[in-house]
Amino acid sequence: MPVSESYLCLPANKCNMRKIFTSFLLIMVLLFSACLSQKKKDRTITLSGAFALYPLAIKWTEEYKKEHPEIRFNITGGGAGKGLADALSGVVDLGMFSREITQEEKDKGTWWIGLTIDAVIPSVSQQNPYLSQLKKRGLTREEFKGIYIDGSIKNWGELLKIPEGNDMVIYTRSDACGAAETFAQYLGGKQEELLGIGIFGDPGLAEAVLKDPLGIGFNNTIYVYDVNTGKKRPGSEVIPIDINGNGVIDREENFYDTFEEVLTAIASGIYPSPPARELYFVANGKPQKQAVLDFLRWTLTEGQKYVAEAGYVPISQEKIEDYLEKLK
Q1: Record: fold of 119-276
Q2: By CB count within 10 A, which of 67, 70, 77, 89 is most buried?
Q3: 43 neighbors 291 (Cβ within 8 angstroms)
């Protein structure tokens, strides 16, 4: 019996239909995956940068996720220089920044909001053999400059005007960072002019100094003091700044025993600025991602209640209002 032409084509039609259906399913799966991927990206906020701001950023993200469990955060340190570079290149949504923003950086498109205030403080080991003299007389700005910029002071005995003394071991930061730039600015220079052995990161510099009885360095307050105990971290000590230059640490200059005292001195302006300074989130232009804008708004409102708890000084309400305007 002859087979009709339409019957012969039927299997081919079925095969084509299967191919079309399979292709349709594949397209739907790809579209669905793309939608999920974009949704995940829209709900992920990436940050990198200043070690000074890192502990507060961690505290904020932990608290924020309690209210917004759908939001994910990826946070890395690396120094203020890395934070700004990553932000401007679009590698991260927000850079953590810990020094004054220059006009050149603003001209490149740097957008910022201030968040809190912190300070850089000179540090030594508790095992320093000259610690009692240092705590009584402190060091003036000019003496710190002699150590870190001019290189005219290299020996502890020479500094303290005692007959014999050991050579200093001077430490600085090896990474482009706000702490070193701010401390250098206090001394009338730039980070690249600071003398000493370069150590990466705030934690690394703090560790190097506390292990070296003859060492001298500088750290952000959060790496010298323990926010939980309010005391200096074991092994760490502070060199008081002789603010009025009279050769002795007066009562009003002696505010280093506890974290609370230091933060009060920073907040009141007794501790000089620099090395006290504002800390920022920076971006390449105003962020467009809604999740980022919502988080930034939260840090300036509800999030401010965690600032003091995390060991930082709150910014003024007037500044908060100014920064909130930038988010509109």
Answers
A1: D-Maltodextrin-Binding Protein; domain 2 (3.40.190)
A2: 77
A3: yes
